[in-house]
């Protein structure tokens, strides 16, 4: 039986550099939660399935050029277009395990030199996560992991800057997990963090991101 059938679902966000292991861990966490009887869905940003998402995808593949602020706002718009659906899923008791969110938006754009407060502004009013897990992997280690896929931003010097911005965004509520540990160890830590979070947010209202 589902232990969250009467309450709302949890908004669980995984953040980290490219090749930090987020996508694999999201998939593992999702099947664990579903196996425990939780209603849970896996989401990711950018969501490349929308028309905004297709513009983002073309930009990342270097098939189009966009001004830095323009692409920043598209990443944000891609979250805004999903906000309503996220809210209704959460309120109806579905937990969302989300691969990247607003913190990626700010860290990657700020790494290009954009003002961090300017980068945060369009994220205000999106749903606030109940749990942010940062998979901490050194940029050098991440680059070793089968290399990058050739998308924009997948360069070690750039990832180093992204890591610095993630670091300055971190607040005490973030759970930092050492992503260089064995996959199963990371997986166990995520299971515990997510399980606790789902229990704790039962009864707590959904809030908006305010920074
Ligand atoms: N990215 C992702 C951003 O620059 N801003 C955002 O708001 C988000 C959600 O897109 N290098 C970057 C981070 C990644 C790239 O993401 C594609 P993924 O998780 O590799 O599909
Ligand atoms: Mg990627």
TrEMBL record:
EC number: 2.7.4.9
Domain of life: Eukaryota
Pathway named in the protein's UniProt entry: Pyrimidine metabolism; dTTP biosynthesis
Sorted UniProt keywords: ATP-binding, Kinase, Nucleotide biosynthesis, Nucleotide-binding, Transferase
CC annotations in GO: cytosol; mitochondrion; nucleus
Domain spans labelled Thymidylate kinase-like: 14-189
Family, as annotated: Belongs to the thymidylate kinase family.
Name the UniProt record assigns to this protein: Thymidylate kinase
Species: Eleusine coracana subsp. coracana
Gene it is expressed from: gb21829
């Amino acid at each position: 039986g589902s232990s969250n059938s009467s309450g709302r679902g949890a908004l669980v966000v995984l953040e980290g550099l490219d090749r930090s292991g987020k996508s694999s861990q999201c998939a593992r966490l999702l099947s664990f939660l579903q196996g425990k009887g939780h209603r849970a869905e896996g989401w990711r940003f950018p969501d490349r399935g929308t028309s905004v998402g297709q513009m983002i995808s073309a930009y990342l593949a270097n098939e189009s050029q966009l001004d830095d602020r323009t692409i920043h706002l598209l990443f944000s718009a891609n979250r805004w277009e999903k906000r309503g659906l996220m809210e209704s899923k959460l309120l109806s008791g579905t937990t969302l395990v989300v691969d990247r969110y607003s913190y990626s938006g700010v860290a990657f754009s700020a790494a290009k030199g954009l003002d961090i407060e300017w980068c945060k502004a369009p994220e205000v009013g999106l749903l606030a996560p109940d749990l942010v897990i940062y998979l901490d992997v050194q940029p050098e280690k991440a680059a070793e992991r089968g290399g990058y896929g050739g998308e924009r931003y997948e360069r070690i010097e750039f990832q180093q800057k992204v890591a610095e911005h993630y670091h300055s965004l971190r607040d005490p509520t973030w759970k930092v997990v050492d992503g260089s540990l064995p996959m199963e160890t990371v997986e166990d830590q995520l299971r515990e963090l997510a399980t606790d979070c789902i229990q704790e947010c039962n009864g707590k209202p959904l809030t908006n991101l305010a920074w």
